[in-house]
Amino acid sequence: MKIEDEIKGRFRNEYHKGLINLVYTEKHVSYQFLQYLKKYKLTESQYNILRVIRGASAEENVSIRYLKERMLDKNSDVSRIVDKLFHREYIDRKENSIDRRQKEISLTTKGLTLLAEMDDCEKKVDLLLKNLSLHEVKNLNKLLDKIRG
């Protein structure tokens, strides 16, 4: 459906329309994604942190700084999110042997199990772009990268 029909609005020009379309589509896709996460009682930021930790190589120390650098939402309060995940027993925090102010963060067995259960969520997320061909998705990625400069 065209953006004009979705929001029943008019636009100053194609750039304005493109920006509104981008924001509206992001909200639409994000809402659908949040519906998947609700089942597991996780926020997008919590899920993002769990995936970043799982994706870290064994040689990398996962710290708050490491997580902040890799977060999709750069305004997230990573320390607070880590605390919540720790209290839910999805992650573990250990004092860094070199710098006691730093904490080394890792997934617990419970956290790994949760992510394994959520693998179907990954497949459902891929379907959020099902109306696009692989070629179109590649073009979309190029255009989004270009927007960010």
TrEMBL record:
Pfam family of this protein, just one? Staph_reg_Sar_Rot
The record's keywords, sorted A to Z, are: DNA-binding, Transcription, Transcription regulation
GO biological process, alphabetically ordered: response to stress
Question: Is DNA-binding set as a keyword in this record?
Answer: yes
Which Gene3D superfamilies does the UniProt entry name for this protein?
Winged helix-like DNA-binding domain superfamily/Winged helix DNA-binding domain (1.10.10.10)
> What does the record give under GO molecular function?
DNA-binding transcription factor activity
Q: Known PROSITE patterns for this protein?
A: HTH_MARR_2
Q: What is this protein called?
A: MarR family transcriptional regulator
Q: Which domain of life is it from?
A: Bacteria
